[in-house]
Amino acid sequence: MAKHVGIKLPEDLVNVIKNGKTVAILATFSEKGLPHTTPIQCIYPKGLESILLTINKDHAGYHNMVWQKKVMLCFLDEGNVAYSILGRAGVVRAPSLVHPLMNVVRVDIIDIKSDRSVLSRVDTGVRWSYTSADAEELSVALMNELKELAQTL
């Protein structure tokens, strides 16, 4: 059973997001009401009530987010981190200073629920690795942009 957490990111989730290795699943709906999910790896907290992320400007999830504004982000990671965040999305930088196809979005938290189960625990989340040195360079640069924006926005 889901438990309401509030509107502030819990410490265990902040730590997982800041480690730069987690993947959030972004859930959106199209104008036709079709659900769409998108894995997001460049994520960073802006304080405790917002999350910054980067997403390709041509991705269906981005278009849905711009159209509808309300989104869900799901996090599952080691240490039994299991949260879903309802938020309102807004573009804060288009394009990213790092890459012309990437845009930076801020998700302001409306509600957080814990998705921990009494029957099982999350031992590890989705793990990924870079496909090339160029991919690593881009990802690191995007994360650095999010970290800077988290301080200056």
From TrEMBL:
This is Pyridoxamine 5'-phosphate oxidase N-terminal domain-containing protein. It holds the Pfam family PNPOx_N. It comes from candidate division TM6 bacterium JCVI TM6SC1. It comes from the Bacteria. Residues 18-101 form the Pyridoxamine 5'-phosphate oxidase N-terminal domain.
